[in-house]
Design goal:
It is built from eight helices and three strands. It is mostly helical. It has two domains: 81 residues, Zincin-like; 153 residues, no CATH class. A three-stranded mixed beta sheet has the order 1-3-2, with helices on one face. The radius of gyration is 18 Å and the shape is globular. The structure holds zinc ion.
């Protein structure tokens, strides 16, 4: 993939590389595994490594926003000293997936806020469309998350979707129609998935008490969810 990027993104990459002391490293993969995912930030000993799905081209309008989003995950950890869990050797793949979801559901709120301040859209243009589809499915009693065969992962994925939407309402300056859509989603979610709603609310309340926009509050919240999801003995730091 030939990467041809805007001046705005180039400038932002420079900032992130300076603040982290790491260079961005890109890898193209056939398939990222999680459905619908086009890019991911992955752990690397010396670089800020991002994997892009092969089908995701840099002429895609989402590409720059996605690029900025993923390197900001690295900025939090290596530039701002944010907590990142070190896992024990006994961790299973399922537990690793849960942990990945915790990273996304907490860190994405901070990441999206930072990229918005840097002039990128806080969410992809497909986000609102997906939210609308989910809300409609909730109302019709359809299981829109049926693609996840694992029932536990599916439940945690729903929580992730709720907390993400709640975070946009809580922390972002979002205009009328989009705000209405987000409100409709969280309201419908509450009655459709009461169990996941209750667990999501615990996480949201923890975030309200401990701001995730600083590394201390973020770590408290992160450890709270690790504990809530029973992963305490899989973390060594
Ligand atoms: Zn993310």
């Amino acid at each position: 993939m030939k990467i041809d990027i805007s001046y705005k993104l180039k400038k932002y990459i420079d900032i992130v590389e300076k603040q982290t002391g790491r260079k961005v490293l890109i890898e193209i993969n056939e398939d990222l595994g999680v459905s619908g995912m086009s890019a991911a930030f992955v752990d690397h000993p010396t670089h800020l490594k991002i994997i892009f799905n092969k089908s995701f081209q840099n002429k895609d309008p989402e590409f720059e926003q996605s690029f900025a989003h993923e390197i900001t995950h690295g900025l939090l950890i290596f530039g701002k000293g944010y907590f990142t869990p070190q896992t024990s050797e006994s961790i299973t793949n399922e537990e690793l997936n849960f942990l990945g979801l915790i990273c996304t559901l907490i860190d994405d709120i901070v990441v999206n806020k930072i990229i918005q301040q840097e002039g990128f859209e806080p969410f992809s243009s497909t986000y609102m469309g997906m939210l609308g589809k989910e809300t409609k499915a909730f109302k019709n009693g359809d299981d829109i998350y049926r693609e996840f065969p694992d029932i536990k992962f599916k439940s945690k994925f729903k929580i992730f979707r709720y907390v993400l939407a709640w975070g946009f309402l809580q922390y972002f300056d979002i205009s009328g129609e989009q705000r209405n859509q987000l409100n409709e989603f969280v309201k419908t979610f509450e009655t459709t998935y009461p169990v996941e709603f209750e667990e999501s609310t615990k996480i949201c309340n923890c975030m309200l008490k401990n701001s995730v926009f600083n590394s201390e509050g973020h770590e408290i919240t992160f450890r709270y969810v690790i504990d809530l999801w029973g992963l305490n003995d899989k973390i060594v730091n």
